[in-house]
Backbone:
């Protein structure tokens, strides 16, 4: 395999810091700017983009991946970002790529809303050598889909939609801010998205729609022999939980790019001189290289907080929960470390090789790095979500001197797991799909053959599965954890189907072994707290739990 250097960078766009990563092979003959989609679609897209960047490096193509302002690890609160800033961010990343590799032709690839932003960027820069669009979606259709998800989520949480789609659209049109999928969408962003439509470009273009939104895909493809529209279908991975095999999409994309304009191969120099390296971004060894980010206070830290994300997540957490909470804690004097587990996010390795044992190994390595930045004897707390809670318990079983654990939506381990959990998840999935069947859009997809039946089957029948050996290992972890005496805070969402069984099981377990603990349920909240009110309650509960920890003595 081609050796690949991976550089964490900070770009400056209109005074804001953008988190970026550059993937650089030993020899570079072209470069690619990778434009992620907005909001929560970034979560499902990031692993695929990282995999693509590595495939492109095998073809002498250096790639730059960045987070928009108010997204991922970049600066800003999403609701406070002027929508024009997203175009400025693209222009900033494009300029950096040209400065870092001036002799290499530059191309652009974007997904969903990122595809239309990539198209806008290409239309303004005639030097764009090629353009690749994955499942392009107009801003109006993106908004419609966000509103649909808001309606379905409300039905799951409350049994009915609290507001009609027409009422939500009216509020947005009037300039109000509406909470959609855990992201506050402002009236200004709503108006800007309505104007995000396909436009003509002169660059050689490849559109891989995957069977999604064929009308927009057709509008994005100019006429000409140099343009391509491969008939390759793939699932909507930007909305999918868990690992999805997208090898055919990545191979088709990388092969098409390899056939585009290339410059004379040049040995790659480290491009970090063209952007400010930042001490917040660190890497350290585990089974493979783990990449992480620090959230640092302005003065001496009162203690440390280690964040452990879920099975299919990354260090930013669902709808930036970890990014936002880590920064809030930094303002209160905490030093936070948010790692990507091996095979996840921006860390090395393959997602298919992940395991709780491997994630625990990564967490121990991260804990050592965090402690190296803290005063001697400073307390360390752990914040974890979903499967990350299993990692937190496994870590505390091996590192009993941890001060306390904050466990959000903890999955039950070993024999604590109820046989009814899978049934509750199946029933909730059935109810969700039944509600979707009441929408005309769903029937249109069914009649056109655009429903991913395999994904539906997986959602209904394939929940978390464990081998007997894995269940036995989890029971051994619980046996070792009995001696832990730091307090625990469990927080669950009221509409999370896993919450009743897990909360009751952990309450019995902690009481039986005299482990100090609190259990809170946020009414109506889902597993990942997709709502600003639920997020606020989650943060307030967690901050109160941390507040008694004193600062270390000088």
Residues:
């Amino acid at each position: 395999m081609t050796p690949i250097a991976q550089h964490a960078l900070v770009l400056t766009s209109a005074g804001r810091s953008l988190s970026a990563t550059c993937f650089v092979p030993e020899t570079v003959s072209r470069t690619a700017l990778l434009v992620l989609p907005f909001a929560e679609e970034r979560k499902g897209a990031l692993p695929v983009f990282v995999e693509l960047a590595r495939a492109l490096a095998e073809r002498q193509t250096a790639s730059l991946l960045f987070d928009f302002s108010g997204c991922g690890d970049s600066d800003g609160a999403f609701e406070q970002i002027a929508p024009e800033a997203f175009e400025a961010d693209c222009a900033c990343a494009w300029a950096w790529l040209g400065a870092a590799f001036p002799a290499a032709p530059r191309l652009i690839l974007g997904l969903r809303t990122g595809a239309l932003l990539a198209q806008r960027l290409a239309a303004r820069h005639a030097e764009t050598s090629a353009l690749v669009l994955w499942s392009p979606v107009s801003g109006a259709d993106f908004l419609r889909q966000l509103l649909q998800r808001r309606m379905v989520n409300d039905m799951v949480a409350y049994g009915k939609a609290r507001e009609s789609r027409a009422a939500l659209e009216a509020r947005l049109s009037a300039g109000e801010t509406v909470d959609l999928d855990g992201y506050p969408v402002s009236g200004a962003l709503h108006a800007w998205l309505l104007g995000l439509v396909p436009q003509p470009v002169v660059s050689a273009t490849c559109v891989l729609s995957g069977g999604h939104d064929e009308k927009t895909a057709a509008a994005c493809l100019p006429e000409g022999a140099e343009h391509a529209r491969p008939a390759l279908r793939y699932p909507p991975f930007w909305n999918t939980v868990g690992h999805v095999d997208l090898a055919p999409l990545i191979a088709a994309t990388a092969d098409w790019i390899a056939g585009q304009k290339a410059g004379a191969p040049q040995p790659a120099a480290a491009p970090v001189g063209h952007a400010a390296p930042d001490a917040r971004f660190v890497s350290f060894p585990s089974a493979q290289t783990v990449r992480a980010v620090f959230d640092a206070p302005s003065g001496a830290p009162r203690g440390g907080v280690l964040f452990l994300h879920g099975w299919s997540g990354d260090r930013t957490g669902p709808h930036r929960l970890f990014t936002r909470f880590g920064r809030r804690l930094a303002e209160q004097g905490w030093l936070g470390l948010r790692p990507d587990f091996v095979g996840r996010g921006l860390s090395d390795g393959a997602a298919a090789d992940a395991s709780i044992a491997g994630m625990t190994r990564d967490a121990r390595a991260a804990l050592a790095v965090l402690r190296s930045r803290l005063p001697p004897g400073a307390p360390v707390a752990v914040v974890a979500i979903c499967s990350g809670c299993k990692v937190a318990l496994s870590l505390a079983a091996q590192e009993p001197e941890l001060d306390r654990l904050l466990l959000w939506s903890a999955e039950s381990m070993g024999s604590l797991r109820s046989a009814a959990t899978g049934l509750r998840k199946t029933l909730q999935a059935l109810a969700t799909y039944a509600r979707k069947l009441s929408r005309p859009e769903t029937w249109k997809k069914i009649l056109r053959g655009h429903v991913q039946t395999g994904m539906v089957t997986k959602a209904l029948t394939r929940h978390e599965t464990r081998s007997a050996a894995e269940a036995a290992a989890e029971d051994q972890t619980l046996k070792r954890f009995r001696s832990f005496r730091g307090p625990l805070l469990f927080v669950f969402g009221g509409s999370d189907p896993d919450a009743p069984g897990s909360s009751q099981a952990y309450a019995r377990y902690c009481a039986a072994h005299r482990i100090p603990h609190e259990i809170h349920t946020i009414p109506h909240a889902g597993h990942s707290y997709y709502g600003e009110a639920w997020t606020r309650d989650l943060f307030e509960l967690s901050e109160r739990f941390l507040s008694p920890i004193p600062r270390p003595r000088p």
In short: Confidence is low (pLDDT under 50) at residues 450-463. The radius of gyration is 23 Å. The first strand starts at residue 4 and ends at 13.
